[in-house]
Amino acid sequence: MFNRSPSILLLFLFILPACGSPAPPTGESGSAPGAPPDSPAGTQSSPPGSATTTIPSSSPTGTATSTPEPSPVPLLRTIRTDGRAVNGLAWSPDGSLLAGALADGTILVWEASSGEQGLSIDASYSLSSVAWSPDGRYLAAGYLDGNGSLYDAASGERIHMLFSQDTGYASAAAWSPNGGSLALGGYGVALFNPANGGAVRTLERYESTLYGTSDWATQTYGLAFSPGGSLLAVTSRDNKVRMIDIWNPSSGAFLDDVRSLKNGSCETVDDLAWSPDGGTLAASLGSGTISLLSTSTWTVTVKIDATKDCINGLAWSPDSAILAGAVYFDGVHFWNAYSGDELLEMETNLGIINALEWSPDGDLLAASWEDGVVTLWDVTNVAQLLVVPTPTATTARTPTPPPPVAAGSVMWSTLDQRPLVYVPGGTFLMGAAATDPDADPDEHPRHEVLLDAFWIDQYEVTHEAYTLCVEAGACNPPAEADDNGFLYEYAAEIRDGPVVNVTWSDAQAYCAWAGRRLPSEAEWEKAARGGDGRIYPWGDDPDAFHKAWYCEGCIYDPDHPDVLDDFSRPAAVGSFPDGASPYGALDMAGNVWEWVADWYSKTTYSQPALVNPPGPANGSYRVMRGGGWTSPAIDLRLTYRQAYVPFSAWIDVGFRCAMDDDRTLLTGMKP
């Protein structure tokens, strides 16, 4: 046995300016017209200033008047790149760093708090985009020729070259939230595994949604994953025009096309942006309008008339309440995402914006300019403009939260038809009590953890369900024999038994295909034990008879599977309803060990993250939980932590999936 770290899946974002041609391969010197004065040498920073703004009035008619009132979005700093165009921007996951992709082939990273330049990477190719990995450890860069590279974000060392193969000029790209898919749009959309640089599949539709059959592939102009990563929205053009197609990126299945944007003459879609809450897809149209689509009906709920020729970029506030757009030669505008009312217009007089990005914490808005300037604004006060007083108070609307559901409620996935149970948000006690005589050191100390609400599979993923993923080309077949020689075909004879002989990456791939993810270690433990600190799913009684499929002193032999057959393979999922967890999840103890998302560290609980803990940033082993059919009763304790190398496969190891409380892919009707 040897150790290795699993591959981290990354996505890089390729941006093509929506109006006009891309920025030149090499930057030209000079300053943008009307730009703030230069700061001292090095990475440039200017004192806070104010943009000219137009603020809606509070009159009953709702008319707007131009006033010289102080701007609610002060300019914090200006970063200059010696006239080199910045084609793409990306915030680090924690918002502390901002990366820029320069047309001359350089990646620059700046401190968001000071504007000081840190890392500089010579990518050697003209760049269209840059993006951080979800854990912040890597930077992915996209080239104007359609290829890309993966870099270590700390050292700048190149890790992989990524080749787009037949995608051609890469005008758009998107990175799935869980890092499981890398979508690169050119002539068609290629889905990649960035860990090895290989293309997984290509999404292509030769049939134009408006004009019938086209005899060549379409050019992709925009890509956007849903926040849960289960849907991919694509806008593209052939010799005439295309609207928006919706795909399942995990299976490659085409799901729907959005035709509701067509309004009389044909309109091109230049940019896409999915709201962070997943309820709205924003599309900027070539006519100078923005359509906000409900993702449940794919119909236009709000239409924004920007009264300009083009919107180069769209950016959502993290709370999904405000939409910002970079209007061609007219600066940045902010709109109320629920009513479409314009909240603010910033006439910046700096030229053409290539990219617009809202910081993860919602405090800053970054813009990159064709003339080689990056500007950072303080947008913390923009939210105050959401409610404009009127006699009827109808111009502003607050977000509508999803309807409440009871703990343990069951809904079914629309993608793989598996049942999931609801685990409400809140705190629970994670880890073993100090008085637990059976606890290992890595189970201490017990600590309180706060989790957001989520859904988790009611049962372990079965052979049948996993086979569908294999047939779709999204999953590898289980290993014929595990690391001890146990044959998969023998375990698969059990009807509705859990799939086994799968690696951590196999489990992750299935969950991504099904529109979900592996649960975090904290999510798994809460789903298994609830909030009362119980030791087993059924309570504190160690008697697991008739409550779990486990092995206390049994004998098993891979060469003689007929010996004590009752303990030679997993049982059908859900065979022990008396062992259900407080939320109705079954087999959380026994049957098969379950892979979870986290890396393993024996010191994870020493300095724990107390809110939605993601686990260690890296490691050599992945965590497994719950015990299996080969386990003694002591291993069924819900605080017990097991670790194995992620590429190993075992006859007593399977998995279940989880997802955020995003019900767009769930139904209350049993398939």
Task: Provide a descriptive summary of the structure in words.
By secondary structure, this protein is mostly beta strands. The chain has four helices and 43 strands. The strands form eleven sheets. A six-stranded antiparallel sheet has the order 2-1-29-28-27-26, with no helix packed on it. A five-stranded antiparallel sheet has the order 42-37-34-33-43. The protein has a four-stranded antiparallel sheet with strand order 3-32-31-30, with no helix packed on it. It is elongated, with a radius of gyration of 26 Å. The two termini are 43 Å apart. Mean pLDDT is 77; it is low at 1-68, 206-217, 388-399 and 560-565.
Give a quick summary of the entry.
With 671 residues, the protein is mainly beta. It has four helices and 43 strands. A six-stranded antiparallel beta sheet has the order 2-1-29-28-27-26, with no helix packed on it. Strands 42-37-34-33-43 form a five-stranded antiparallel beta sheet. Strands 3-32-31-30 form a four-stranded antiparallel beta sheet, with no helix packed on it.
Index terms:
671 residues, mainly beta, 6-stranded antiparallel sheet, 4 helices, elongated
Topology (elements, then pairings):
Blueprint: E1 52-56, E2 64-66, E3 75-80, E4 86-91, E5 97-102, E6 106-111, E7 117-122, E8 127-132, E9 138-143, E10 148-152, E11 158-162, E12 172-175, E13 182-186, E14 188-193, E15 198-203, E16 207-208, E17 212-213, E18 219-225, E19 232-237, E20 244-248, E21 253-258, E22 269-274, E23 280-285, E24 289-294, E25 300-305, E26 311-316, E27 322-327, E28 332-336, E29 342-347, E30 353-358, E31 364-369, E32 373-378, E33 410-413, E34 419-423, E35 426-430, E36 447-451, E37 454-457, H1 463-471, H2 488-491, H3 504-513, H4 521-529, E38 593-599, E39 622-625, E40 642-644, E41 653-655, E42 658-660, E43 666-667
Parallel strand pairs: 38-41
Antiparallel strand pairs: 1-2, 1-29, 3-32, 4-5, 5-6, 6-7, 8-9, 9-10, 10-11, 12-13, 13-14, 14-15, 16-17, 18-19, 19-20, 20-21, 22-23, 23-24, 24-25, 26-27, 27-28, 28-29, 30-31, 31-32, 33-34, 33-43, 34-37, 35-36, 37-42, 38-39, 39-40
